[in-house]
Amino acid sequence: MENPNEFVEWLRSVAPYIHAFRGKTFVVAFPGELVTAGALPVLAQDLSLLHALGIKVVIVHGSRPQVEEQLALRNVEARFHNGLRITDIAALECAKEAAGELRLDIEAAFSQGLPNTPMAHAAIRIISGNFVTARPLGVIDGADLQLTGVVRKIDYDTIHPILNAGGLVLLSPLGFSPTGEAFNLTMEDVAVAAAISLRAEKLIFISETPLMKDAGDTEIRELSSHQAQAVLDSGCLPADSAFYLQHAIKACNAGVPRAHVVPFATDGSVLLELFTHDGVGTMISYENLESLREATIEDVGGILKLIEPLEADGTLVKRGRELIEREIHYFSVIEHDGVIFGCAALYPFPSERMAEMACLTVNPEVQAQGDGERILKHMESRARAAGFNKLFVLTTRTSHWFLRRGFVHATVDDLPKDRQHMYNWQRKSLVLIKTL
């Protein structure tokens, strides 16, 4: 390894995600196109890694290209209505054939265990069964969809113990009625129903579609479900992407905290989406993922992790855990998907109607993305709301950043009297003041 330190830093940086995800349920759904593209073995390795990290994984596979192949072999015409397959008896037999073949391929992929491969010593058990109860869709706009169905129920009582026992669960796009009939389902419908029923933390669609873009050709990285609905209503998305987004919105509105649509064309896309700040796909949540708020005592650990490197190199004055705990009500944090990525503190000097902003810190991994600017504006708003008309900072290394944002040079004599007494003449920090 050329750079062990870089590896160590990377591994430490993903630790908060590992802690946050352990014991949670993820529903991972992928289309038949992924199997056709030969990406199944690598996906099995990545999902096995999630399993090894203590994440409960439910897999839902699609089968559209495989069903099309079976229909062609039998000289049966494929029929659709509004993007949904009309499933007659012949088409259902093709769907069963495709699902059976895919199930065996997926089980084989998770049975890999050669030494010197990511699956070595994995010993994963993947379990499938009649876990999906379905009903017919019926007649829609005058078209009888016959044996095309929709999920009625996911067997939570059976699946939950399997996950708790360390097994992976595999769901096919087929469902069964209490009368013994089989129905052809969409992978997206099964995945959403499973995520809702199993109270999954995340629903992840690994799609054949590229990263979504809005009408202005800008990449769509994060959306609340309300914003996603507006994008969907705008009609700017291709039909396949819109279908994924529609189901992601449905899942979030029904209580799934996060839904992701990730292109499988990117190697390791699931890992990149889950363990990096920006990910490689589109993330939808019921509320905005990023939270800029006043800190609580639970944030002390995250704040310490942020500021310790800057304290070590002398950029910030050292603060111990006890001091931060006492002063936590002065702090604000910017949180992304449960991880603290930035912070700052606002210390009041009421008699002079001034406030000091201190400890402004943003994780180096996400700098240059505007988080520092957002924190600054938030602290300015806090200061105004408290009745202060001036905000000042003391800095040794970032004066230019503040000067570009409206601060001006000042002297120690311009500080509040109490702050003048606490000024550290050895550090010789520059004084910058901004009128609010």
Automatic annotation (TrEMBL):
Protein's gene: argA
Primary location class: cytoplasm
InterPro entries tied to this protein: AceGlu_kinase-like_sf, Acyl_CoA_acyltransferase, Asp/Glu/Uridylate_kinase, GNAT_dom, NAGS_kin, NH2A_AcTrfase
PROSITE patterns named in the record: GNAT
Domain N-acetyltransferase per the UniProt entry, residue ranges: 290-436
GO biological process: L-arginine biosynthetic process
CDD domains: AAK_NAGS-ABP (cd04237), NAT_SF (cd04301)
Gene Ontology MF annotations: L-glutamate N-acetyltransferase activity
Functional pathway: Amino-acid biosynthesis; L-arginine biosynthesis; N(2)-acetyl-L-ornithine from L-glutamate: step 1/4
Key word Glycosyltransferase present: no
Catalytic activity: L-glutamate + acetyl-CoA = N-acetyl-L-glutamate + CoA + H(+)
Pfam family membership, one: Acetyltransf_1
EC number of this enzyme: 2.3.1.1
Descriptive protein name: Amino-acid acetyltransferase
